[in-house]
Each structure stands twice: as C-alpha cells, then as structure tokens.
Amino acid sequence: MGLPKACASAMFLVLSALEALASDTFIAAVYEHAVILPDPTDKPVSPDDALALMNKNMDVLEGAIKEAAQQGAHIIVTPEDGIYGWQFTRESIYPYLEDIPAPVVNWIPCTDPSRFGPAPVQERLSCMARNNSIYVVANIGDKKPCNSSDPGCPSDGRYQYNTDVVFDPEGKLVARYHKYNLFRGETQFNYPKEPEVVTFETPFGKFGIFTCFDILFHEPAVVLVSKMQVDTVLFPTAWMNVLPFLTAVEFHSAWAMGMGVNLLSANTHNISFAMTGSGLFTPEGPAAYHYDTGTEEGCLLLAELSAYPCLSPTYPPAINWSLYATSIKKFPGENDTFSGSVRRDIFTFSELRRKTGNYTVCQGDLCCHLVYQMSNKRKNEVYVLGAFDGLHGSLIKYHWQICTLLKCKSTDLDTCGQPVETAQTKFEMFSLSGTFGTNYVFPEVLYSGVQLAPGEFEVLRDGRLKSKHGTSKPLITATLFGRLYEKDLPHPLEPPNNMTP
Fold it and tell me: Does 499 have pLDDT greater than 50?
C-alpha cells in the first residue's frame, strides 16, 4: 500500500475570513483509508492471524499519522472499521476484539501495555500518538465479559461493542465511546445499555465523539452539541453513499452547518461498497473535503479550524426554519403534483415546467416553497420540487421532513427520486423554504459530480436556503433536511414510554 500522501483530487477550500479572524485555531486531519479486508469467514481466525491483518492496516494508518504530524496537525481521525473491516459474524470478529477500559483508569498503553491483559492494538495506537505528539482517534472492537446475573448477557457470555478510542499526545487513553445506533448489518455487535455522551477537553476546545449512523439521531449526536456544548465532533464512519440526500460529504457538511460545530469526518474508502467522502466541516462550510469514486487510494486531509467556532465573528446566526414559509400564501401549482419514491420513501413532487417560477408542494404538516430561475430550460432534463413528512428506516424508524429541489434521472417522471450524479442545468437563483416543525434542519446543495458548493449559498434568519449569485456548476439538488426527533419510534433497546424528547 505504501505511505499515504495528500491526495491531489481533494478539494482544499480556504476559509480566509475564518482564519484571519479566529483568535484560537488548531490544525485537524482526517484520513480516508482503503481498508485491507480479511477473507470472509464464519469461523474465527487465530489471534495471530487477526493481529497480522490489523497490523497491515495500522501500518498504513501510522504513515498517515506521521505525515499529518509532520504537517503540524494536532489531531487526526481515522475511519470506522479502519483496522479490521466489517465482514464479520459475531463469532468471527471475536479474535479482533480487545478489552478497552474506561479512560478514568489513567492508562498509557504504550508504556504499560499489559496492565489490562493483551492489548497490542491499543498499545500500537497509543505509541503512534505518543511518538508523533498528536491526538489519535481510531475505531476498534471492545469485549466485556458478563454472566447469568445480568439478564441482558448474551448467550456466549460477553458483550461486543463497536468502539471509538482517543489517545492524547502522551499516548494516554482519554476517550472511549460505544456506538449506540448500530446499522442494520452490524449483528456482530451489541447495543450499549444506555447511550453514552463522551467528551474531553483539549488545549483547543471541547471535543465530543460518536460513530457513523449515530449522526442521524438525537442521542448521542444532538445531546453532545445542545447539552454538552462541544466545539468539535470527531466522527469515524464507514458511510455508504446514498443519493440524492445522504452522500457523506453532502450530509456531513450540512450537519456541521445545521448544528453549528466543527465535524471531523473520516470515511472508509471502498468503491464496491460506495464508501468514500471525508472532510473537515465547519459551521460556515467545508474547510477541506474529498470524494473519489475513481480510485482505490486513501486520502489525507488537513485544515486549520477555529477551536471555538461559536465565538467566531463569522459564526452563522440563529435561524427560525419556518418563519418565512409560514408567513406567505401558497404559490400556485400545489394541486399539480404526483407521487414518487426516493428509495422507499414516498414523496410528493411537482414538475418545474418553466424556466422560472414559484411553486408550493405539501405533504402532511410540511409545505415546501420554491422560487427559482434556471439559466436555461433544457428539454432533456427535468427538475421537481419535492416534500416528504414521515418515518424513514427499517429496523430503526426515524422521522424526516424534507424539502428538495431535485433533478430527475430522466425526462420520465417515474425516475424522479432515483440516484443522479451528473446534471447540465445551472440556476440563476433559487430560494427554498418549508414549514418545518423542528429547529434541526440541515441545508444541502450538491453540484454535478457529487461536489459541494462552498460559499455559493446562504441560509437566511427566516429559514430560506438561497443561492448567492447563481450556481457555478449544474445542480443535482438543493435540500432542507429536517429531523423531528420527538416523532422517532423507540430505539430497539427502549420501551415505548422512554422515547427521547
């Protein structure tokens, strides 16, 4: 694999105003890692074989960590599943797991590796941090024995957790987080009994951490920001891109803007699983990001970020997401609608038939308003205004409210909502708003080629998502992605009367 290098295809976007005005900054890094995967098997391999595979991946990660440190980075995030992959059963992942203690034990594995039993992975990660004087964030597996006195104890006598760890520049374990919202394929892991809210202090701000699918839920993601008031969120992920609303760079950038924090997002890189897209995201937009479906190479990103973004003069103002949309009358066209599916979600759509226009589309309690002007109305491309207000998901069901200006896959309206990566139509302007029943709304603008639009749009205090000076590239979608957490169905471990407000 060789040592990683900063990828030429990465988009480095200098937020000059932020860097000039911020009094306290730090250099952050994320590494998108092309994970070396084990051979799929239902039977456990030997501990030596498991460690050999993990060392191959850690060889690559160590190269990225060294390079990041040499370039002045204070912290680096590596991906979820970045050390051993994800193709496991409950039994076959066991040789890859270690007992990870709580940080309160004040432990430096690099200098005291056997204190809690064999821990070669934690030892090596700790030494990477210590030898390079950098915070290292990694994702590994934790195992905890249990017995019949615990009614929740699995039949094999142990809990297994998808776990993030953070080692400080001395190599000390300073954070451990067990993933709470497991994705549907993660049957090798257990849910922790309670959601964990993990934070730690650094010389450059207060940090929180969670993993991948967690970002879509109230606990722990919203709790970390709204209650614990972290400045920066660390986000190891193995994110499979799903157009039109849930590509990694698109949603993660929108989440950082909507929540008003830095988000350091490190994705795995595997094209066959549609995994790519990492970034250093801020409340003002992306400082650096990478999306690459053409190669199987890893990518190191670095950027200087504000340590305390909420104190920055450029910090976005508070937004009333429904103020504008509830103050106007419906635009004509709300009766000229049709239904279409975005994956399994049934949207209400209205076709934008003219070069310029005003439209309203409603579904449930949500009405979406759009004012737009295309640069040129092309006969071979169709755009729609869409609304969705309902539950999404299979194992875990959670409530979305979405307003979207969306390109259809073809001129056949039945294709509206299907994945589209390219477009030809630019817009002179657009203004999108909705009668959202939540303060948690994430603004997305995605250009042709799955590229972000930093600096080219704004969100006004009254909730309008507006282009600033037209779109510089053809538009795939402009979307306001709302989450009504209080309408989510219970977490699989929660009884119905324990729903998170």
Answer: no
For residue 19, name the pLDDT band (cuts at 50, 70, 90): very low
pLDDT of res. 185:
81
Q: Which residues are catalytic?
A: 80, 179, 212
Per-residue pLDDT of 95-143, as tens digits, reads 999 999 999 999 999 999 999 999 999 999 999 999 999 999 999 999 9
Beta strands per DSSP E along 70-182? 75-77, 135-145, 158-167, 173-178
Count of residues in the chain: 501
What is the distance in angstroms between the CA of the first residue and the CA of the last residue of the chain? Answer: 47
Q: CB-side exposure of 134: number of CA atoms within 13 Å?
A: 28
Q: State pLDDT tens for residues 148-174.
A: 899 999 999 999 999 999 999 999 999
Please check the confidence at residue 380 and state whether its pLDDT lies above 70.
Answer: yes
Predicted confidence (pLDDT) per residue in 314-339, tens digit: 899 999 999 999 998 876 655 689 99
Distance, in Å, from the CA atom of 248 to the CA atom of 239, rounded to the nearest integer, reads 6
Sheet holding 465-467, edge to edge: 356-363, 366-374, 427-434, 465-467, 457-459
Spatial separation of the C-alpha atoms in residues 95 and 97, rounded to whole Å: 6
Integer angstrom CA distances of residue 141 from 79, 100, 177: 13, 8, 11
Q: What are the sequence ranges of the domains in the chain? A: 25-311, 322-487
Tokens 């160590």, residue? 62
Question: 């203690």: which residue's tokens?
Answer: 101
Largest CA distance in the chain: 71
CB atoms within 10 A of CB 395: 9
For 25-311, give the CATH class: alpha beta
Torsions phi, psi of 474, nearest 5? Answer: -60, 145
d(CA 189, CA 329): 50
In whole angstroms, what is the distance from residue 179 CA to residue 389 CA? 27
- DSSP letter at 95 equals G
